[in-house]
């Protein structure tokens, strides 16, 4: 798998989350470097402006593009607190909140290409108030491409017993004989 996930509890009130979805040769290495950078810098960006998260993703793009071993990845990196969700994304990984009032696609404005590692990625920042109830899913492009949004929304609105992230990944297994791409998910529930 070329997908990498990160969930770090910060300051006892928030989480830094990231999903990187590596692509092509060196994609797994690129995804790992991306989540490592988020693990190192993300906790310091806890309550910062979304532009700080955008700058972090641009720095990851530059790091990967200038490396000796090239690699490309998508990345969603964010911090969720009881008050707000702040982050940035580049590529086809997705962050989505599903609650009683419906779904909020935090990464809806992002560009799928170019990926981080090209030196030309255009990360898109986002910010939203954290709803009182619901679930935040951060998923790889491989999962998002293989699961209809309505199916993921229903799973998040009424999760089965056990691990909702594992259930989301299981949804990505298509009924056809061809295997799905990499699929990764983080799910954080509130209320």
Looking at the structure, what is the overall shape?
Answer: globular
Number of helices: 5
Average pLDDT score: 88
The helix/strand class is alpha+beta
Radius of gyration: 15 Å
Proportion of residues in extended strands: 25-35%
Low-confidence stretches: 175-179
Helix and strand sequence: EEHHEEEEEEHHHE
**Most strands sheet:** 5 strands, antiparallel
First-to-last CA distance: 32 Å
E-strand count: 9
Strands side by side in the biggest sheet: 1-2-3-4-7
Helix percentage:
25-40%
Describe the model.
The protein has 191 residues and is of the alpha+beta class. It is 28% helix and 32% strand. It is built from 5 helices and 9 strands. It has helices at 27-41, 50-65, 141-146, 149-157, 164-171, and strands at 3-10, 14-23, 72-80, 84-90, 94-99, 102-105, 124-129, 134-139, 185-190. The strands form 2 sheets. A 5-stranded antiparallel sheet has the order 1-2-3-4-7, with helices on one face. Strands 6-5-8-9 form a 4-stranded antiparallel sheet. Strand 5 (94-99) and strand 6 (102-105) form a beta hairpin. Helix 1 (27-41) runs antiparallel to helix 2 and helix 4 (149-157) packs antiparallel against helix 5. Mean pLDDT is 88; it is low at 175-179.
